[in-house]
Design a protein that fits this description.
By secondary structure, this protein is of the alpha+beta class. The chain has two domains: 82 residues, ATP Synthase, domain 1 (Sandwich), CATH 2.60.15; 46 residues. Strands 1, 2, 3, 4, 5, 6, 7, 8 and 9 form a nine-stranded mixed beta sheet that branches. Helix 1 packs antiparallel against helix 2. The model has no long low-confidence stretch (mean pLDDT 94).
Length: 136
Amino acid sequence: MHVTLVSLNGLQFDDNALEVRVKTPIGHMVVLPGHEPITAVTSPGPVIIVDSKNQEEIFASYGGMFEVSDDVVRILVDELDHVDSLIESEIQDAIKQANSMKVKAKDQRELDEAQTLIDRQLVRLEVARIRRRPKS
Protein backbone atom coordinates (compact mmCIF):
# COMPACT_ATOMS: atom_id res chain seq x y z
CA MET A 1 0.00 0.00 0.00
CA HIS A 2 1.15 3.55 -0.58
CA VAL A 3 1.38 5.92 2.40
CA THR A 4 1.57 9.70 2.32
CA LEU A 5 2.12 11.65 5.54
CA VAL A 6 1.80 15.41 5.26
CA SER A 7 2.16 18.14 7.89
CA LEU A 8 2.09 21.92 7.60
CA ASN A 9 5.87 21.65 7.13
CA GLY A 10 5.36 19.57 4.00
CA LEU A 11 5.65 15.97 2.92
CA GLN A 12 7.09 13.78 5.70
CA PHE A 13 6.66 10.30 4.19
CA ASP A 14 5.68 9.22 0.68
CA ASP A 15 6.42 5.57 -0.10
CA ASN A 16 5.08 2.06 0.03
CA ALA A 17 4.55 0.55 3.47
CA LEU A 18 3.62 -2.73 5.07
CA GLU A 19 1.68 -1.28 8.01
CA VAL A 20 0.50 2.00 9.52
CA ARG A 21 -0.41 2.46 13.19
CA VAL A 22 -2.30 5.55 14.38
CA LYS A 23 -4.18 6.58 17.48
CA THR A 24 -7.86 7.51 17.15
CA PRO A 25 -10.39 8.75 19.70
CA ILE A 26 -11.62 5.16 20.15
CA GLY A 27 -8.17 3.53 20.38
CA HIS A 28 -5.18 2.48 18.35
CA MET A 29 -5.72 1.37 14.77
CA VAL A 30 -3.54 -0.73 12.47
CA VAL A 31 -3.90 -0.38 8.72
CA LEU A 32 -2.61 -3.22 6.53
CA PRO A 33 -2.72 -3.65 2.75
CA GLY A 34 -6.25 -4.32 1.56
CA HIS A 35 -7.85 -2.39 4.45
CA GLU A 36 -11.44 -1.32 3.95
CA PRO A 37 -11.94 2.35 3.00
CA ILE A 38 -12.19 4.63 6.03
CA THR A 39 -11.79 8.28 6.95
CA ALA A 40 -11.12 9.04 10.59
CA VAL A 41 -9.77 11.60 13.01
CA THR A 42 -6.42 10.92 14.66
CA SER A 43 -5.70 11.67 18.30
CA PRO A 44 -2.43 12.96 19.70
CA GLY A 45 0.02 10.07 19.85
CA PRO A 46 2.45 8.05 17.81
CA VAL A 47 2.14 7.49 14.08
CA ILE A 48 4.19 4.45 13.14
CA ILE A 49 4.80 3.52 9.52
CA VAL A 50 6.47 0.19 8.79
CA ASP A 51 8.13 0.79 5.44
CA SER A 52 8.69 -1.74 2.65
CA LYS A 53 12.07 -2.69 4.20
CA ASN A 54 10.29 -3.52 7.50
CA GLN A 55 11.83 -0.45 9.21
CA GLU A 56 9.71 1.74 11.48
CA GLU A 57 9.35 5.45 10.83
CA ILE A 58 7.99 6.90 14.08
CA PHE A 59 6.43 10.32 14.55
CA ALA A 60 4.77 12.22 17.39
CA SER A 61 1.50 13.61 16.05
CA TYR A 62 -0.77 16.08 17.78
CA GLY A 63 -3.90 15.14 15.91
CA GLY A 64 -5.24 15.28 12.40
CA MET A 65 -7.03 12.89 10.09
CA PHE A 66 -6.38 9.92 7.85
CA GLU A 67 -8.03 8.27 4.92
CA VAL A 68 -7.68 4.76 3.52
CA SER A 69 -8.91 4.11 -0.01
CA ASP A 70 -7.80 1.74 -2.78
CA ASP A 71 -4.64 0.64 -0.89
CA VAL A 72 -3.60 4.28 -0.38
CA VAL A 73 -3.26 5.81 3.10
CA ARG A 74 -3.22 9.58 3.44
CA ILE A 75 -2.42 11.08 6.83
CA LEU A 76 -2.81 14.83 7.31
CA VAL A 77 -1.64 16.54 10.51
CA ASP A 78 -0.83 20.09 11.56
CA GLU A 79 2.33 19.32 13.48
CA LEU A 80 4.63 16.34 13.66
CA ASP A 81 7.97 15.46 15.27
CA HIS A 82 10.15 12.60 14.03
CA VAL A 83 11.36 10.34 16.83
CA ASP A 84 15.00 11.13 15.97
CA SER A 85 14.45 14.78 16.91
CA LEU A 86 13.09 13.96 20.39
CA ILE A 87 15.46 14.12 23.37
CA GLU A 88 13.92 12.69 26.53
CA SER A 89 15.83 14.92 28.97
CA GLU A 90 14.71 18.06 27.10
CA ILE A 91 11.13 16.83 27.11
CA GLN A 92 11.29 16.16 30.87
CA ASP A 93 12.58 19.74 31.40
CA ALA A 94 9.75 21.12 29.25
CA ILE A 95 7.20 19.17 31.30
CA LYS A 96 8.63 20.64 34.52
CA GLN A 97 8.44 24.17 33.07
CA ALA A 98 4.86 23.64 31.90
CA ASN A 99 3.86 22.28 35.32
CA SER A 100 5.42 25.37 36.91
CA MET A 101 3.43 27.57 34.51
CA LYS A 102 0.29 25.68 35.49
CA VAL A 103 0.89 26.27 39.20
CA LYS A 104 1.52 29.99 38.58
CA ALA A 105 -1.45 30.46 36.24
CA LYS A 106 -3.50 33.54 37.07
CA ASP A 107 -6.54 32.75 34.96
CA GLN A 108 -8.20 30.01 32.92
CA ARG A 109 -6.40 31.02 29.72
CA GLU A 110 -2.97 30.60 31.32
CA LEU A 111 -4.09 27.34 32.89
CA ASP A 112 -5.29 26.04 29.51
CA GLU A 113 -2.04 27.09 27.79
CA ALA A 114 0.03 25.28 30.41
CA GLN A 115 -2.10 22.14 30.11
CA THR A 116 -1.77 22.21 26.31
CA LEU A 117 2.02 22.34 26.68
CA ILE A 118 1.97 19.47 29.18
CA ASP A 119 -0.22 17.34 26.90
CA ARG A 120 2.06 17.99 23.92
CA GLN A 121 5.19 17.09 25.87
CA LEU A 122 3.60 13.90 27.18
CA VAL A 123 2.95 12.79 23.58
CA ARG A 124 6.57 13.61 22.71
CA LEU A 125 7.77 11.63 25.74
CA GLU A 126 5.63 8.61 24.82
CA VAL A 127 7.08 8.60 21.30
CA ALA A 128 10.66 9.18 22.48
CA ARG A 129 10.35 6.11 24.69
CA ILE A 130 9.16 3.95 21.79
CA ARG A 131 12.64 4.22 20.28
CA ARG A 132 14.16 2.61 23.39
CA ARG A 133 11.82 -0.40 23.42
CA PRO A 134 13.20 -3.62 21.99
CA LYS A 135 11.30 -4.94 18.98
CA SER A 136 9.22 -8.00 19.75
